[in-house]
Amino acid sequence: MRAPAFWAEDGLLARLLAPLSGLYAAATARRLARPGWHAPVPVICCGNATVGGAGKTTLALDLAARLAARGARPAFLTRGYGGRVGGVLRVDQAVHPALLVGDEALLLAAAAPTYVGADRAAAARLAVAGGASVLVMDDGLQNASLVKDVSLLVIDGAVGFGNGRVLPAGPLREPVAVAAARCRAAVLIGGTRGEAALPAGFPVLHAHLEAAPEGRALAGQRVLAFAGIGRPEKFFATLAATGAILTALRPFPDHHPYSDAEQQALLREAASLGALPVTTPKDWVRLAPAVRPAIRPIGVSLVWHEPDAIAALLAELAP
Fold first, then answer.
1. pTM of the model
2. How many CA atoms lie within 13 A of 228 on its CB side?
3. 74 φ, ψ to 5°?
4. Has residue 208 got a pLDDT over 80?
């Protein structure tokens, strides 16, 4: 889906829907009041207060790499958005397609053992049995089935919290202050919008995205860029920062299932422009295996503005 335009401002439609927002927030609060399972290993949650992408998967990958460097054995827990897993499953990249486990799960599985399932407690039990010494949740801040030791509130600093209203009047899953009350700190990525809406004195860590080394090699090269993520323009801006020549930009909805016709059309257009077709790793895993060699996935890295602060926080989980 793409976010409705009215979520960006507190207009008439948002105000008319406000009574329904109260019902949604109350239902979320009741769900969160249920007791969860305490895992025998530390649990860190990369969550957000809004629907859509904010950088949770990128943050989860970064934290897991840092934890592994400290000698920990991280495992990822994810719902597997867009997939069809009914129970809990450990992801096998060689066997499980994105249609089954979701695109984000495949990205996570390339870095550490990854367990997909709506029941985070059941997934956590399986991960611990598999030898994990710390669990990293990609999303799940509004899931009460598993108790978190540390939760981080991830914010897309380019858009913040939109109009500040709860679904369906706005993009929030719950009020900002309610979400922040369960978090150790906020991680503001790529801007400062949303920071003013946080409770006074709430800790904020800042970061921005940079293209991975393969992206920096695109400087001066003609590319056709396409992306089906929460905000495709964020990917396009990252490419522009590398010095790539953006000959065409093709945005798609988040988690878009590319048809054969669409994939072939993108390849033909790139060829007609004399451009290299590029996309995000999240999109790349949703493409047909026969098409992937012709399209280059360009990842991103998270650059921390306060690296000592995140190192100190992780030291609590992996001394």
1. 0.94
2. 20
3. -75, 150
4. yes
